[in-house]
Design a protein that fits this description.
Blueprint (H helix, E strand, L loop, with lengths): L2 H10 L4 H14 L2 E5 L8 H10 L7 E5 L5 H6 L12 H18 L8 H15 L3 H11 L5 H9 L5 H10 L3 H16 L4 E2 H7 L9 H7 L6 H6 L3 E3 L4 E4 L2 H8 L1 H4 L11 H16 L12 H10 L3 H13 L5 H10 L5 H12 L15 H7 L3 H9 L15 H7 L3 H9 L14 H8 L2 H9 L14 H7 L4
Parallel strand pairs: 1-2
Antiparallel strand pairs: 3-5, 4-5
Helix pairs in contact: 5-6, 5-7, 6-8, 16-18, 16-19, 18-20, 21-22, 21-23, 22-24, 23-24, 23-25, 25-26
C-alpha cells in the first residue's frame, strides 16, 4: 500500500477510495468478489461511489457488482456500460410483490382485518389496478385506509385515490390540523437535512427550539408532551429504524418537499423546503440552543453535573457537532453572521467553553478532558469560518496562541482541515508558519501527515521550516520526499 494512501486513510478514520480500490483488486486476484450497493441515489457523497465504480469498470478480474438506484443522470452516466435491469420493465414481478404486500397488510392490520371480506376484496382490487408498479404509492394508500373506521369512508376513499406519489403526499399534508402544521414542518425539516439521524428524544428537543430563545425554560415549554407524537404527526412520511433513529419513510418524501410542485399548491406550500434556507434555520437553531442559559455558567465541574446537563438538554451533542456543517451549506444572512460572531466573542466565553467541553466529549472517553486554553480563533479557523476569522483577527486576537488540545495554533487547525483560504488570511495577518504545538508538531508536519500537496506548497511558500523535528525526531524533508511533494 502506498504511503500517501495510508496517510489519507488515517486522516478521516476511514479507508480512502484509493485504498478500497487497491483492496478490491488484491482480493479479486485471489477470490471472486461480489459488491452490493443498495440505493445509490440515497447515498451521501455518492460522487465518490460513482468515481469508484468507474475506476474499477475495466478491471479484468472476478468482480461482480450489483447496484440499485433511481435513474438520476449522474448515476446513469457512471454505470453506462454495465448490464442494467429496469424495474419498469418487470411490472409483472413488481405487481406480484405489491399484491403480496397488500394481502399481508389486510391480514395483519388490526383495524383492516376487522372489516368484512367484501370490502377487503375491493381494497385489494382498487390498489392493484391503480398502483402502476408504485410500491410506495400502495403503501401510503394502505396506511391511509387503515385509519378509517367505516365501510362507507373506505369506499369513498377508494373512489378518489390519488394517481401519483406527489398527489399522495399533498393529500397527507392537507389533512394536517392547522395547529400542528408548524410542528410537522419543523419535523420534516430536521429529518430531511440532519447530518446524522436523530432519536425521538433529540427530535422532540430540536423542534422546540426557535430563533431568539434565551432560556431553557422556553424550550421546555415548547416541547411535545410525548416524543411519540412526532410519529403521529408524521403519519406515512416518517419511520423509526431499528436503531431508534427517525428517518423519512422514503427518499421521495424529501424530493416532494423540495420540488416545485409543492410550492405551487397553496394548501401545502408552507411545508416546502429549500436547501439553503433549511440549513440556515438548522444552524440558527443549533447556535441558539448552545447559547441558552443552561450553558451560561461555563463547563460543568463534576460528572454528576455533566450527566445532568446532557439529560436536561437532549440536543446538546448534536448541536455542538452539527451547527458548523449546517452553517457551511446555509444561505448567509446578516442575522446569522451576527449570531455566529457573537458566539465567538469574549462576551460569550462561558458558553463558548461549555461548547468546547461538549464538542470534545464526542470523541474522547472522559467528560472533563478538553482544552481549557481553547481559543475562538483556533476553532473558527479549524471549521473554516472565514468571516469569523477575519473579525477575530481584526479585533486583535493573538494569531499564534495555542488553542487546541495539544497546543496547536489557528494555523494548525486550518491546515488540518485543509482550509487554504483561512490559511492565507492567517499568513497575511502574520501567523508563524513554523510555530509548533506542545508536541513540537508544526503545521507542516500536519500537512505532511494528511498528504495534501497544495497545503504543503502553501506552507512552503510562506517559508515554513522543512527541517523542524516533531516529538518523534522525524525530519520533514524526508516525509515530503516519501510523499513525492518535494
Amino acid at each position: 500500500m502506498a504511503y500517501k494512501e495510508s496517510l489519507t486513510s488515517a486522516k478521516s478514520g476511514r479507508p480512502s477510495w484509493d485504498v478500497l480500490k487497491g483492496a478490491v483488486n488484491w482480493f479479486a486476484t485471489n477470490y471472486k468478489i461480489k459488491i452490493l450497493i443498495d440505493a445509490l441515489d440515497e447515498c451521501q457523497g455518492r460522487e465518490d461511489v460513482l468515481a469508484f465504480l468507474d475506476s474499477i469498470r475495466n478491471e479484468k478480474k472476478a468482480i461482480s457488482i450489483l447496484v440499485t438506484s433511481r435513474e438520476d443522470l449522474d448515476v446513469k452516466d457512471a454505470i453506462d456500460g454495465y448490464r442494467g435491469l429496469r424495474m419498469e420493465d418487470r411490472r409483472s414481478e413488481v405487481d406480484r410483490d405489491i399484491e403480496s404486500y397488500i394481502d399481508h397488510r389486510l391480514a395483519t392490520n388490526v383495524n383492516l382485518n376487522k372489516f368484512p371480506e367484501a370490502i377487503k376484496v375491493d381494497i385489494r382490487c382498487s390498489l392493484l389496478n391503480k398502483s402502476e408498479g408504485m410500491f410506495r404509492w400502495a403503501q401510503c394508500q394502505i396506511d391511509a385506509l387503515s385509519r378509517l373506521r367505516t365501510v362507507k369512508s373506505i369506499r369513498a376513499k377508494l373512489d378518489r385515490l390519488p394517481t401519483t406519489l406527489n398527489e399522495t403526499y399533498a393529500n397527507i399534508l392537507k389533512s394536517v390540523q392547522e395547529e400542528d402544521a408548524e410542528l410537522l414542518r419543523r419535523i420534516l425539516l430536521w429529518v430531511s437535512f440532519t447530518i446524522v439521524p436523530l432519536t425521538l428524544d433529540e427530535l422532540q428537543e430540536a423542534i422546540a427550539v426557535e430563533a431568539g430563545m434565551r432560556t431553557l425554560k422556553e424550550v421546555k415549554e415548547s416541547r411535545l408532551n410525548d416524543p411519540k407524537d412526532i410519529l403521529s404527526l408524521g403519519s406515512s412520511l416518517l419511520r423509526v429504524c431499528e436503531t431508534g433513529h427517525v428517518k423519512l419513510a422514503h427518499l421521495s418524501v424529501r424530493d416532494y418537499l423540495l420540488s416545485q410542485d409543492i410550492k405551487t399548491h397553496p394548501d401545502v406550500a408552507k411545508f416546502s423546503l429549500d436547501h439553503g434556507e433549511a440549513n440556515r434555520e438548522l444552524a440558527t437553531n443549533c447556535i441558539t440552543y448552545l447559547s441558552l442559559d443552561g450553558l451560561a455558567n461555563g463547563p460543568t465541574k463534576t460528572q454528576d453535573d455533566w450527566e445532568r446537563r446532557l439529560d436536561d438538554q437532549a440536543l446538546l451533542k448534536h448541536a455542538a457537532k452539527g451547527w458548523t456543517y449546517y452553517l457551511r451549506d446555509a444561505d448567509q444572512t446578516s442575522e446569522l453572521r451576527k449570531l455566529v460572531s457573537d458566539f465567538f466573542t469574549v462576551r460569550s466565553r462561558p458558553i463558548f467553553m461549555s461548547w468546547i467541553q461538549i464538542l470534545n466529549s464526542n470523541w474522547i472517553f472522559r467528560w472533563d478532558e478538553y482544552p481549557r486554553h481553547a481559543t475562538s480563533l483556533y476553532y473558527a479557523a479549524s471549521f473554516g469560518l472565514l468571516d469569523v476569522v477575519k473579525e477575530l483577527v481584526k479585533t486583535g486576537a493573538d494569531i499564534d496562541e495555542p488553542g487546541s488540545r495539544f497546543g496547536g495554533t489557528a494555523l494548525h487547525g486550518a491546515t488540518l482541515r485543509e482550509h487554504t483560504s483561512v490559511m492565507e488570511l492567517l499568513f497575511e495577518a502574520g501567523a508563524d508558519p513554523s510555530k509548533a504545538d506542545f508536541n513540537r508538531v508544526t503545521p507542516l508536519h500536519t500537512a505532511a501527515r494528511i498528504g495534501n500537496a497544495g497545503v504543503i506548497r502553501l506552507l512552503l511558500k510562506f517559508r515554513a521550516s522543512k527541517t523542524a523535528l516533531d516529538s518523534l525526531d522525524f525530519f520533514m524533508v524526508e516525509r515530503m520526499m516519501i510523499l513525492e511533494i518535494c
